[in-house]
Amino acid sequence: MAHLLHIDSSVQGPQSVSRRLTAQAAAGWRAAHPGGTVTYRDLAADPPPHLDPQSSAALSAVLVDEIKAADTVLLGLPLYNFGPPSTVKAWVDHIIAPGLSTDASTGAGLLGGTEFIAIETRGGGYGPGTPREGWDHAQTWLAHGVSTAGLSPRFVVVELTAAGADPALAELKPLAAQSLADGETAIDRLWAAGESAA
């Protein structure tokens, strides 16, 4: 039976764009996998602690087991101050664990073959030619960070999500609407018949 691990991390609650988009993606996954099961983890409501000598090993085992049980991992990844939420960083720190997600003797990743979809939302614009091109450190960091465990995330990116609320970005509302529409289309195609996110 197919199993999805759905993870949110935004602190924006019901107003979060990343939460709305991961909910859309999870609904699409369920439609494509009738009878499939879902584990949900909210890193904002239940943040993993920073690494420490006492609790890290036990928590790492739990978090890695959640990934091992899943065919697909779906992560909501809002961009905060040019990087990932600190809770996502802590989650990654816990899942990169020798003997659990990597082979303790060879260093080879043990989670390969698990589909990993990261839905990234950015309040501003960070694409080619923009003033802050290259300032998005969440996407490259995540891809590199989880690669040691054998995971290879596929990203769906929606940007300019703050255009509706930030007067300084008001003129970019049409671009924001297009980015959102493109992201929603990409999400709808993730598990459409005959298509694969792998």
H/E element sequence:
EHEHEHEHEH
CA-atom Rg in angstroms: 17 Å
Strand content: 15-25%
- Number of strand elements: 5
Shape: globular
- Count of helices? 5
- The mean pLDDT is 94
Low-confidence stretches: none
Question: How would you summarize this macromolecular structure in one to three sentences?
Answer:
The chain has 198 residues and is α/β, with parallel strands linked by helices.
What does this 3D model show about the protein?
The chain has 198 residues and is an alpha/beta fold. Helices cover 33% and strands 16% of the residues. The protein is built from five helices and five strands. The protein has helices at 17-32, 56-68, 86-95, 138-147, 173-189, and strands at residues 3-8, 37-42, 72-78, 115-121, 154-158. A five-stranded parallel β-sheet has the order 2-1-3-4-5, covered by helices on one side. Helix 1 runs parallel beside helix 5 (173-189). The longest helix has 17 residues, at 173-189. The chain is globular. The model has no long low-confidence stretch (mean pLDDT 94).
Give the helix/strand layout.
Blueprint: E1 3-8, H1 17-32, E2 37-42, H2 56-68, E3 72-78, H3 86-95, E4 115-121, H4 138-147, E5 154-158, H5 173-189
Parallel strand pairs: 1-2, 1-3, 3-4, 4-5
